[in-house]
Amino acid sequence: MARNKRILLVLLAVVFLLAGCKMWLPWGKKAEMARATPEGLYQQGLEEYKDGSYKRSVELFQRVKEEYPLSPLAIMAEIGIADSFFSGKEYPEAGLAYGEFLNLHPTNENLPYVMYQIGMSYYNQITTIDRDQSEAFKALKEFERLIARFPGSKFSVMAEKMVRDCKKAMGDQEFYVGEFYFKIKQYRAALRRFEKIARDYANVGLDDKVSRFIGETKRRIAKTEAKRGPVEKKPQ
Hints:
The protein has about 240 residues and is mainly alpha-helical. The chain contains 10 helices and no strands.
């Protein structure tokens, strides 16, 4: 009798376990189906992005874009991909993703933000003053394009400050080269650099310093030429 009771208890346990599995599996399947919808995938992408899992958020946003191209969320997923690259400090990839969005959706309402982010993707690649400043130049052009196209946007207001910062970076690099020429007494080469700064990068915090160097460089050029004396003309 006791043995039969034990068998009955085991059978009941198995029944409850199987019943539990039947209740659990459909729920899990429904959850998986929810995650596979554009809304579910996009929401997952946002959650991964907020958690700082940028590579994972790119994958999820990419799925929305590729598996549900006609969904309204596909466009937002494209921005999500670019934002994920940007937040992950993969700035070249971010710039390409924002640029692709700009080309595919030239009238989208998010264009001011996207254009600003293109500029910032270049700006964040600016290196030290002893290196080429081509990224600063590219960023400058993107910010100027944004300001010209959307002058009333809040992103244009933000871009105006970045224009100044880009010009400052480019001016600093020109001054670095000019000062080098000045130190090795190549005064005419130095003067060309200083005058370029005064002409192209005014009002970015370099004016006083550049003005002093222009004056001193001209003085040294005049002094050097005076020591040489008049240049004799060759007979005709």
